[in-house]
Automatic annotation (TrEMBL):
Record flagged with keyword Signal: yes
InterPro entries assigned to the protein according to its UniProt record, in alphabetical order: TAT_signal
Keyword annotations from UniProtKB, A to Z: Signal
Signal peptide: 1-36
Protein name, as recorded: Peptidoglycan-binding protein
């Protein structure tokens, strides 16, 4: 379902209103910004990161910040731990929590290896972390590809790996479920100290 950017309510607001009710919609504008000591700049959101590898207890600073940023965006959309686990596990599988700049599989790129040719946005948009997360969730106005809330609005009732696969359509569907424990650990480590990000 696509909603024009010129409508009174954005696609994000319409989905959130349906999921959480009018009171949550009214509160959207009052969410706290990211912590003052944690500033995610445009440079952070678009910086090329191309080293491969993921080990939960050997993450470098960029992987940690990317994990925390995913959590902040999830919280900014008033979504929960289950949504975070699905999103983080997908980013672990697709990019090792790095924001790939080169095209590594056809025209794919970014945290989720989204393809511009499949409607996920432009070359730059799939590599912009906030836009890529929003698109994965189905809350990105720039993307015409169906995301998590489009394909599985009842995702809490799904096995997390299956919900991730519904969005990604991977040739290796079992890989997302394998990373759910790591994703849940990242939520447990960082969520209490990360404020919602809504910019």
């Amino acid at each position: 379902m696509l909603v024009s950017a010129t409508t009174a309510l954005s696609r994000r607001h319409l989905i959130l209103a349906g999921a959480f009710g009018a009171t949550s919609l009214a509160a959207l504008g009052s969410l706290a910004p990211a912590r003052a000591d944690e500033v995610w700049t445009e440079e952070f959101m678009t910086r090329p990161e191309t080293r491969e590898g993921f080990a939960l207890d050997a993450m470098d600073d960029w992987q940690v910040e990317n994990a925390k940023f995913v959590i902040a965006v999830i919280k900014g959309h008033e979504l929960d731990e289950q949504a975070a686990a699905i999103t983080l596990a997908t980013a672990i599988v697709e990019s090792w929590l790095r924001n790939y700049e080169p095209e590594v599989d056809l025209d794919s790129g970014g945290l989720f290896q989204q393809r511009p040719s499949m409607g996920w946005g432009t070359y730059d948009e799939v590599r912009h972390k906030k836009r890529a997360i929003d698109a994965f969730l189905g809350l990105g106005d720039h993307s015409s590809a169906p995301g998590l809330l489009d394909l599985s609005p009842d995702f809490r009732e799904w096995a997390p790996g299956e919900a991730a696969q519904a969005v990604q359509g991977s040739a290796y569907p079992d890989r997302y479920a394998e990373q759910i424990p790591a994703a849940q650990t990242l939520w447990e480590r960082y969520s209490a100290d990360v404020d919602p990000y809504t910019d």
